[in-house]
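User: Fold this one for me? It's ATP-dependent DNA helicase RecG.
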Amino acid sequence: MRPALLDPLFAPASSLAGIGPKLAKLLMKLTGSEDEARVIDLVFHAPTSVIDRRLKPGIAHLPEGAIVTVEGRVDRHQPAPSRSNAPYRVYLHDETGELTLTFFHAKADWLEKSLPVGETVVVSGRAEWFNGRPTMVHPDYIVPVEKADTLPTVEPVYPMTAGLSAKILRRSIESALARVPVFPEWIDPAIVAKQGFPTTDEALTALHNPRDETDIEPQAPARRRLAYDEFLAGQLSLSLVRSRMRKARGRPVRATGVLSDKVRAGLPFQLTKGQQEAVTAILEDMSQETRMLRMLQGDVGSGKTIVGLLAMLAVVEDGGQAVLMAPTEILARQHYEGIAALAENAGVTVSLLTGKTKARERKEIEAKIASGEAKIVIGTHALFQDNVAYHDLRLAIVDEQHRFGVHQRLRLTAKGMAPHLLVMSATPIPRTLVLAAFGDMDVSNLTEKPAGRKPIQTVTIPLERIGDIVGRLRDALAQGKKSYWICPLVEESEAVELMSAEERYETLAKALGPDKVGLIHGRMSSTDKDAAMEAFRSGETRLLVATTVVEVGVDVPDASIIVIEHAERFGLAQLHQLRGRVGRGDEASSCILLYKGPLSEMGHARLSVLRESNDGFRIAEEDLKLRGEGELLGTRQSGIPGFRFGSLEAHGDILAIARKDAGYIVSKDPGLQSERGAALRTLLYLFRRDEAIRYLNAG
Ligand code: ADP
Ligand code: MG
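Assistant: Here's what I get for ATP-dependent DNA helicase RecG.
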């Protein structure tokens, strides 16, 4: 249960005075909350810059364009002549000169009340010079001189969302801040002292009350404290989950090799050294009394699937069941087809279970899963719905793990009696991120590509030359080649995205021959998707127009060209993934990035990296540099939580300390029973890492 201390922070933001339904909705959008914005979301909404109002040079010396504060006596009002668009003007002076305040569409009575003639007032806003006269258009603040101290000297500036006013957001955050309690100290006192950390409640107050620009920087003490809290919560939750997983006595898998030898014998290729080593490491892990927790990293096309299959066969040899979970239906089906064909050589039946499996069939498969007759099960999230009960699940493999959340992974592994866990990732994650996201999970890398692969030639071509490309495609198809055509991402709307894919399909079908061109997108029924994939695989169609549904994992080895339209709209990692659809066979392949100029500096850098490198690890590192890890990890569903305060670049030193401390805590107080343990539970809830606590209680 969440400590009562935190209740005020987890109340809906609408429980704060002045936040009605409309504002609550805006705040939900602003904070990216799933259901509703909570008080804590406002408290955690950090400013990104400041407005400094301390500059008071006197009217005659106002610097053009600067934010300034002026104290002066109001001399006269010059209302706008009726029916004119001219502004309402108010004049005031100090000992150096006269300032014109300019208001458009202003309410005269409000101006008369707030700027009474003969009174001294303080105004703050942007100074501008017109015809040699200093002016201020719509001052941000107007206060009587007696209340000068209510004027904020340094104001935080927050990331905004359309329709929200800065003043209202600031006010909302202020009232949210008033709910912050005094937290128990959860950091080791020696670390607090050494780092000179303020307390968390002090840090939150300081976060929203910057005194100058340096308070906004990542190295400001308040920011470092919050970053440390965030890292500690993350690392602790990982350590707890991990120690539970480890401790749950794994059941050693005794592989006989009977089945895997048969499958190996049927392979049309030799395993690479990396694949061989990965298989060895996995079998070794699974033969232990503790649970396997291993990540298999390998660039697109490096051949992770076969490694996964050999691991699953080892489990089947020992009489157990294994599942492989993929993030999309297309990918699950493709794995199913590929794996079923190989497993047939060993007489092992493979089942497929996805969200689209028909009710009757689903019943049958579920029954087979429950009886243990289904040895290898491949599917999507459907694999761990509540009604799926496994007879003896011994190994769970998660493909393209970055697509899944930690929750989902936990749920899947909660299914069996402590199944071993292997996650496979084609998006190479830099080492620092692996540590941040998974703690010290074991990692196998497939660094080399299977033999005989030719490098993919990548070119960038402006969209205006699309006609040339279509001409070149015509020649290529005539030579019997196969090509993908990836349609642009449309951020705003899936419907528009679909339309553009359909349109592109029409024009290409017309240009290249309707029977040669196929179309696949996310809205098609699975039967239609299958048919489209199958037609392309078999060569009936030679050009497949697709949305990003083919991004991950799709494997048609003899496709050798990929055209990506509006490449500038895609992220680097995504482009690399897409490119990985070709270069999977022995044919020389090419990737054509069609871009719409002019490119932003970032867009240019992205496409250059891609043109120059085929190495997923390098690309991931470059991506990290270009975007910062926040964005790389940004999406919540990525399973690698993005950081709110922490930055791997700026705070690498304290991340290392947090990791070490988390490991120490879990070794000393695995149930978080001590006084500090209780404080740490509060920390986990505060940063919404409490899934780990559930784990702790369940154990
Ligand atoms: P990914 O790592 O991207 O999941 P896949 O497992 O889909 O890669 O493998 C890509 C392609 O390479 C498949 O067609 C697969 O059959 C083939 N492949 C895998 N291992 C080898 C190998 N050692 N030699 C040649 N081809 C291989
Ligand atoms: Mg794959």
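One thing worth pointing out: Residues 629-641 have pLDDT under 50 and may be disordered.
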